[in-house]
Amino acid sequence: MSNDVTIAEICVAACSDIYRESGELLAHAVGIVPTIGARLAKLTHSPDIILSDGEAFMMSEPPALGKSAAHGGTIEGWAPFSRIFDIVATGRRQSIMGASQIDQYGNQNISLIGDWKKPKRQLIGVRGAPGNTANHRVDYWIARHGARLFVESVDMVSGVGNDRAKAAGLKHHHLGVIITNLAVLGYDESGRIKVLSVHPGVDPQEVTDNTGFPLEASKAPETRIPSDEELRLIREVIDPRAARNREVPIPQPVG
Amino acid sequence: MPDKRIELSDAVASIESGMTIGIGGWGSRRKPMAIVRELLRSDVKDLTVVSLGGPDVGLLVAAGKVRKLIYGFVTLDSIPLDPLFTAARERGELELQEYDEGMFVTGLRAAANRLSFLPTLAGIGSDVLAANPHLKTIKSPYSDDEYVAVPAITMDVALIHANRSDTAGNIQFLGPDPYFDDLYAMAATRTFVSTEKIVPTENLLDEGSFHTLMLSRMYVTGVIETPKGAHFTTCEPDYGRDELFQKHYAASAKDPAAWEAFTAQFLTGDEAAFQAAVERFHAEQEKSLV
User: Fold this and answer.
1) For chain B, is the Cβ count within 10 Å smaller at the N or the C terminus?
2) What is d(CA A238, CA A241) in angstroms, rounded to the nearest whole number?
3) Among B90-99, B171-180, B245-254, the least confident range
4) Structural Rg of chain B based on CA atoms
């Protein structure tokens, strides 16, 4: 086992694990770590998932990280935005999205901070989060796990959480996991967030202290460390310029 | 076939205060910026703007042209937020309908199909419903499902920028994504299309396959030849986004004094003056690098 694995690499492997049961569907991944995770999944345990270039093309061989199909790779299909909404509606897609706020039921906010009529900070808007969560599996990637992000109550529900989905009768709603720089979170039977694993080198108390609602972390196992082959693929094939380590705050080696 | 060529100023002169205008493109991609700049020069106000927004929204909002905004998002893509839009939003001065992206498209489809609404799952359970009290849900007549009944987003005028057109208004999109420009045109009473280049009809297939002819002249009121008419947004494959200029736009937009200087430098003259000012901007940037 490598002894210089970074938190970012552990998170990449955790993102990759999201796709183990996916089969042939479009892997939509927002952020550098999730993008690397999807590519790692395709190169290892989930060769059938469909990657995109982040623009209009499905790629059997993706272009270099951060580049579109115009810069290389192999196109296997065309999915301009109008087709994306059709694909969302068929459910043949999964998203790893970011979040500005998440509550204990997984309600996510990316729209604004403060009041709807006169927000303290206008963010990007709800974008596709309501439709994504109504139609297919959604996971979240949080590069900075903090108590201002994991809150009692979010200011504008963009991605729908488990409590609201149940109340509204959303049949295709499926929240997967939340991968943060400290831990991997899931949901218990009541739909509340629970800790699935804490990353090696992270004090479980740090997870509890950095969450704005009660979250027990002391009994959780350690998150798995990527295998030597996964590390080689991450470092030499997918992300040779180590963009992953810029997305996670302190890329300290964890042992 | 009819000749629908029209001057930029005449097209914009036909847009009246209080109208609903739809602006094609997506974020900071293939926006009809020359038409937007002409709108900034006009005395039109109180517009309802329909857009998957980019700098088109920021510029019109900052110029006081917008009474109401119907949108899925406002972003500059390579820069997440448009400072002119966020500032107006944080002052609480805009009347808004913020939709999920898929809901927005559903509203366009309803208008294009001449339906008063279309149902969608997108939005159910989210605060989009609370933020848009005009939205109603509808029970399926066939199951126990409930959907959002997205009202038709009709518009008086749609504004689009395309790669090529003929003089009759047969429109060609050569880039990787046509976005929803065809739907805007079908949802609107009138549609003006600015284009990089007007070509003879028999040359329309010289640069792209027949799949690129996605918007027929039957939906087009007028065509305007405006080279670089999407600047500083993308117009693939003719040109990419002018990232340097967009950075300058976004930085200037954050500071009132800098924005005044930006306006004086770029937005006081006509379209030709704008394009000349952009060339001078790049020449100066290059000089400062030497």
Assistant:
1) C
2) 9
3) B90-99
4) 19
User: Which residue shows structure tokens 């805009």?
Assistant: B94
Structure token pair of residue A234: 């991450």
Closest partner residue to B176 (CB to CB) among A57, A168, A172 is A57
Half-sphere exposure of A104 (CA within 13 A, CB side): 13
Q: Which whole-number Å values give the CA distances from B253 to A44, A124, B244, B257, in the listed order?
A: 46, 17, 14, 9
Task: Give the number of beta-carbon pairs within 8 Å between A and B.
Answer: 131
Per-residue pLDDT of chain A (255 residues; tens, 9 = 90+): 456 899 999 999 999 999 999 999 999 999 999 999 999 999 999 999 999 998 899 999 999 998 889 899 999 999 999 999 999 999 999 999 999 999 999 999 999 999 999 999 999 899 999 999 999 999 999 999 999 999 999 999 999 999 999 999 999 999 999 999 999 999 999 999 999 999 999 999 999 999 999 999 999 999 999 999 999 999 999 999 999 999 996 545 444
Contact call for residues A110 and A97 (beta carbons, < 8 A): yes
Task: Closest CB to A134: pick one of B71, B86, B121.
Answer: B121
CA distance A48 to A159: 27
Chain B partners of A125 at a C-beta cutoff of 8 Å?
Answer: 71-75, 98
Chain A: closest CA distance from residue B1 (Å) = 30
Structure tokens at A190: 């009541």
Q: How many Cα atoms occupy the beta-carbon half-sphere of A74 within 13 Å? A: 4
Of B108, B193, B189, which is closest to residue B159 (Cα–Cα)? B193
Transcribe A183-222 into DSSP letters.
EEEEE-TTS-EEEEEE-TT--HHHHHHT-SS----TT--B
Q: How far is B61 from chain A (nearest CA, A)?
A: 15
Are B100 and A128 within 8 A, CB to CB?
yes
Helix, strand or coil, per DSSP, at residue B281: helix
**What is the ipTM, given to two decimal places?**
0.94
- A-chain residues near B177 (CB < 8 A): 55-56, 80-81
Distances (CA, A) of B48 to B155, B156, B190: 9, 10, 15
Cβ atoms within 10 Å, residue B85: 30
The answer, for A112 touching chain B at a CB cutoff of 8 Å, is: yes
